[in-house]
Amino acid sequence: MQALVSVAQADGDMIRAIRIGKVLIVFLHKSPLILVAVSRLDEATPQIQIQLTYLYNQVVSILTSKQLHQIYEKRRNYDLRRLLAGSERLLTTLANSLEDDPSFLLAAVKCLPLANGVRETISQTIVQYTTKLKDVVFAILIAENQLVTLVRMRKCFMHPMDLHILLNLIHASESLKTGESWTPICLPRFDSSGFVHAHVSYLTDDCEACLILLTVDRDSFFVLSEAKQKIVERLRRQNCLDALNNAMKTNWPTMDSIGIPQIRHFIYKSRPIAQFTMPRLPLPYASETEGKNELRRLFCGYSKLQGRIHAHSRPLRLLYWTGDKENLMGWMTSTFELYVTFDPLTKKYVAIEGVEKLLKWVRKEEEKLFIIESSTF
């Protein structure tokens, strides 16, 4: 691979992709690394490059870009696996998630559906006990790989890619459930040259929501531990822990609760805030026997729509695709992206009627589905 890339560079060019039949080989140049992916899923080159970018960011989150460059300035043929030893689970979990988690495709985060009043109480409780703490930059509450709230220091912003790195850390590390953890982590879009320090802990034994407090002060573990205890005590008094547990158990929304029979499934992304929502997967995508294959086919369909809508040449705003097992529709405006699945016999006009009803439902439930404005301290 290195020789192939070097030949192209010698001619003043750069290899982006090679297609051999149904196989697509994609290259991503992130100095000092070259990442390569091989795909048979009929994905677009830019989509695979995004996946490679996530894997690169995961490496940077462990080492920082500064350390990477220093290593290869001294030894161009250094075997990076030595420094990544012990982090294989993070990379494996991320690679598996890239196949069937639409958050990476959309560059967006899924929020836990929650009553706006409850979410606001949780946010203000976190603000109350972190606002006076020196050097805390972010406080994030996560439940079942979904965002509950994000509180940030003024003028500091959390990019979705950085948030995905944190979500992957929680998802891949069962050991975090056993107590309070203190770990350095680099957030590549926030500052790729250095670490922040993360105090990670689950709220209580009876509420499996995970609180992440991020600071630039490496010596503030005990201060953040005390703040976490105060946050939990107040959330319990305000009955927020019960509300979180109920939200995690209900798996709302479902297509039955939304009540639009012609729609099987959908993904709605709010573009200004980079957040998305989708209902619980129905049959056949949730089948215990065929669910995995059906789900992969569904997300491959969404991926094709997304790739066509975002194509560099001749991008589309609206696309309706018919298939043997389902029909799919993709629609992008300045404020949202929408991908919808219909029964294969659904007529276009019936699909449009269903989408109009769906958009009305999203507007009605918007405050419950999304975090419209993050709290600051």
Descriptive key words:
44% helix, 24% strand, six-stranded mixed β-sheet, alpha+beta, 377 residues, 15 helices
Give an account of the 3D structure.
With 377 residues, the chain is of the alpha+beta class. It contains 15 helices and 15 strands. The chain has a six-stranded mixed sheet. Strand 1 and strand 2 form a beta hairpin. Helix 5 (88-100) packs across helix 8 (160-172) and helix 7 (116-130) packs antiparallel against helix 10 (221-237). It starts with a helix and ends with a strand. The model has no long low-confidence stretch (mean pLDDT 94).
Largest sheet: 6 strands, mixed
CA-based shape: flat
Order of helices and strands: HEEEHHHHHEHEEHEHEEHHHEEHEEEHHE
Helical content class: 40-55%
Ends: how far apart? 48 Å
Number of helices: 15
Residue-averaged pLDDT = 94
- Structure summary, number of beta strands: 15
- Summing up helix and strand content along with how strands pair, one would put the structural category as alpha+beta
What's the quick description here?
This protein has 377 residues and is an alpha+beta fold.
Write the SSE topology.
Blueprint (H helix, E strand, L loop, with lengths): L1 H9 L6 E4 L2 E8 L2 E7 L5 H19 L1 H10 L6 H4 L3 H13 L1 H5 L2 E2 L5 H15 L5 E8 L2 E7 L7 H13 L8 E5 L2 H4 L4 E9 L2 E9 L5 H17 L2 H11 L4 H4 L4 E8 L4 E3 L13 H19 L8 E4 L5 E6 L3 E7 L5 H17 L1 H4 L5 E2 L1
Parallel strand pairs: 4-11, 6-15
Antiparallel strand pairs: 1-2, 2-3, 5-6, 5-9, 7-8, 8-9, 10-11, 10-14, 12-13, 13-14
